[in-house]
Write a structure and sequence with these properties.
Helix content: 40-55%
Largest sheet: 6 strands, mixed
Distance between the termini: 79 Å
Number of strands: 16
Shape: elongated
Structural class: alpha/beta
Radius of gyration: 40 Å
Length: 729
């Protein structure tokens, strides 16, 4: 059917057949609640996978703690960090949408970043836009715990459209939209903005047509009574014989019934006087003087109010016998009556009031439907523009935090790139003591190193680092500043994550099946412009199967899919093998740590003997960690000392057994002399590399040091390849 916006929903959206059927079912279901009108507005439809927006999988939102923290709390989530500065409920919803749907259009991202930069600068300088934001809080605020404001204006508009708004909600919404628009116009309107997006939002929020619409609608209602909460549907509409003729007729009928009741009082008083005389003249005005002037009173009986009672002294003579005695007050010495004439007139008044109430409700619904709801789209556009300003201002407040920079969005023809210098985890840094978070850098490029394999000790910061990189990339594409010394990236078309252990017992899925299912979905979806984050893939099965799955998956990602990838594993052989196979496109890192010297005077020796202790430094270092120090974490978790000691002894036995088997294989293959020669050569290469690095690192910057370590690592790998070539020959 035709929409009230003048278009046809099917033509406007060119909906597929299945979607059309779904809309038809939704329409039929909503109609029974009177909420089907929204489906008649073509502009309210938008594709779920809108062009220019990234659709993040629920796993990504959960694993990166974007909307809720791991403890299912608002605090600690990315939404908490970016949306904490919003002043309005609509602005908070806008930020939530931006967080869950980052932009994928480079120009749109740059435009939003420019607007955030403008608001950040204005706030620092105390410019005119700060006045606009204060006005925004005054008119549109109040729904997020603040004082004053119009409440949740966007939701009020929805109720207006569906015809369920109260007078107070209507007046609050129109006053907020119109009041904010007038104040923005008074200080300069859209000319206050320097960037395109800011100007567009200001222009939509202070559109003179919106001001006219708000004033026109408010002129038809009792604004003061509605604002004070005294107005109802029966009293809020101002008299207007032209607009509401039926309302005028029923209002006059109520007034006539009320007058008829008042007109009864003199006749009733005269009837008492006549009865008191007994039908005989008594001379003078004695009867008239004894009979008080009659008025109506009301009393409460139980939970009901009894109205139109006539209260008379209990000694007054001449009361007609057909008057109904309702109650007696002995302390006041009065009796209250309901004359039959009054009951008839009161029934007529009640009927008039019911007809008037029905007419008022019909007039109110008609006013909402024909007048207010007809302006829904232009009013909603103004509210959403105000929400956009609020959301941008919240991002600007984040941009003012220490150590945040504006990311550079590289051109579309640039090789896929993610580069953060001294990046920091945004939400973790926000809850830790200032300066306590250790930053780390990352540099991935589609035509260079595009896969980074991270190994290292448990609790060393591996998972934190890969989450950090994903969050910073997503923040940049939301139009937010990021916590780093420098940031540049190309636009990602998707971020895919697989981390943490979970199962789905209701669906019969084990932890490993869930892990493989998520990985399968990633491998089907990722492209060269995506970021793939995999944490400890293959840990849900046996070691051999896990190593095989991790190796094959990462090899496929590097060789065939070619996205930028962060891969955390506790299988060092996977890191070494793939770094050697894909030297140009794969590199290795591990979080640095120091082993506590057991001979140090402050070292407390475990009486039962145990695993060595380590201290985490959290700074990523090129190379592969030779072990994961799981027993160190076991000790930190409070496992009994004898259990840790027994585990350490068993670990040494297994390591020695593996080393012995490897030595036996090498001796059988090459002979003892060749094995000895290779061992000496490996030690020599390692000592030379260590000496060269010590000399070079002494005067190097951190960036230069990382490059020096990378070259030394490459030199060792080349020497090992040369020995492998000798083996095959």
């Amino acid at each position: 059917g035709k929409t009230s916006a003048g278009g046809n929903v099917g033509d406007a959206l060119n909906l597929p057949e299945q979607t059309t059927r779904a809309v038809a079912v939704a329409f039929d279901w909503l109609r029974q609640f009177g909420l089907d009108g929204m489906l008649l507005l073509a502009p309210t439809f938008r594709p779920m996978s809108a062009a220019g927006e990234m659709n993040l999988a629920p796993n990504v939102l959960r694993q990166l703690e974007m909307l809720r923290s791991r403890e299912d709390k608002h605090r600690g989530s990315l939404l908490w960090l970016l949306g904490d500065g919003t002043r309005t409920a609509a602005g908070a919803r806008a930020i939530r949408r931006w967080v869950s749907h980052p932009l994928m259009d480079g120009d749109a991202i740059r435009t939003r970043l420019d607007s955030v930069e403008e608001l950040r600068t204005e706030a620092d300088a105390g410019g005119a836009l700060e006045t606009v934001l204060d006005s925004l809080a005054k008119h549109h605020g109040g729904a997020r715990g603040g004082k004053g404001g119009g409440g949740d204006v966007e939701r009020y508009l929805g109720r207006i459209f569906h015809g369920t708004a109260t007078p107070a909600e209507l007046v609050a919404a129109l006053s907020a939209v119109g009041g904010f628009a007038k104040e923005v116009l008074s200080v300069g309107g859209d000319s206050l903005g320097r960037t395109r997006l800011t100007r567009e939002l200001l222009a939509a929020a202070c559109d003179p047509a919106v001001v006219h619409t708000c004033d026109e609608l408010l002129s038809r209602v009792d604004v003061e009574a509605a604002s004070a909460g005294r107005a109802t549907a029966a009293t809020v509409l101002l008299p207007d014989p032209v607009k509401f003729p039926e309302l005028e007729r029923t209002r006059e009928a109520v007034a006539a019934a009320e007058r008829a009741l008042q007109d009864l009082l003199p006749a009733l008083r005269q009837k008492i006087i006549d009865n008191s005389r007994g039908g005989k003249p008594q001379g003078g005005k004695g009867g008239l003087q004894l009979t008080p002037r009659l008025t109506y009173t009301s009393v409460r009986q139980g939970s009901s109010q009894v109205e139109h009672l006539i209260e008379l002294p209990d000694t007054l003579p001449g009361i007609p016998t057909n008057w109904i005695r309702v109650s007696t007050n002995k302390s006041k010495k009065v009796v209250r009556y309901h004359p039959p004439e009054v009951l008839d007139a009161a029934a007529t008044l009640e009927q008039s009031r019911e007809r008037h109430s029905a007419a008022c409700a019909a007039a109110w619904r008609g006013f909402l439907r024909d007048d207010a709801a007809g302006a829904f789209l232009e009013l909603r556009a103004a509210v959403r523009a105000a929400a956009g300003l609020d959301a941008l201002a919240s991002l600007a407040s984040v941009a003012r935090l220490d150590g945040y920079v504006k990311p550079t969005i590289l051109p579309d023809d640039h090789p896929p790139t993610i580069r953060f210098v001294d990046g920091r985890h945004p939400t973790l840094e926000a809850v830790l003591d200032p300066g306590s978070f250790v930053p780390n850098s990352v540099d991935l490029r589609g035509d260079a190193v595009r896969a980074l394999v991270v190994t290292g000790p448990n609790m060393g910061g591996k998972s934190c680092f890969i989450r950090q990189v994903a969050l910073l990339a997503l923040m940049a594409q939301m139009g937010s500043y990021v916590p780093a010394a420098a940031a540049e990236l190309t636009v990602l078309d998707g971020v895919y994550t697989r981390m943490g252990a979970s199962d789905n017992l209701a669906m019969g899925s084990s932890t490993f099946l869930e892990e493989m299912s998520e990985c399968s979905s990633i491998l089907r979806s990722a492209t060269e412009k995506s970021l793939v984050v995999l944490d400890e893939l293959g840990r849900g099965t046996s070691t051999h199967d896990g190593v095989a799955v991790a190796h094959a998956t990462l090899d496929h990602i590097i060789s065939d899919l070619k996205p930028m990838c962060l891969f955390v594993t506790h299988y060092p052989d996977v890191a070494r093998d793939l770094a050697r196979k894909h030297r140009t496109h794969c590199d290795t890192r591990y979080p640095s740590y120091v082993e506590v010297d057991e001979n140090h005077e402050n070292y407390e020796k475990d009486e039962n003997g145990g695993a060595g202790r380590i201290e985490f430094l959290y700074r990523l270092t090129p190379g592969v960690a030779h072990r994961s120090y799981g027993l160190n974490v076991a000790r930190m978790a409070g496992l009994p000392a004898d259990v840790v000691a027994a585990a350490a002894a068993r670990a040494r036995e297994m390591e020695e057994a593996v080393a012995a088997r490897a030595m036996a294989r090498d001796v059988a293959r090459f002979g003892p002399e060749e094995v000895e020669r290779r061992s000496r050569e490996t030690v020599r290469l390692a000592e030379e590399a260590a000496a060269a690095m010590d000399a070079a690192l002494a005067a190097a910057t951190p960036e230069e040091g990382a490059e020096i370590i990378r070259r030394a690592q490459a030199k060792v790998l080349a020497a090992m390849d040369a020995m492998d070539a000798t083996d095959t020959s």
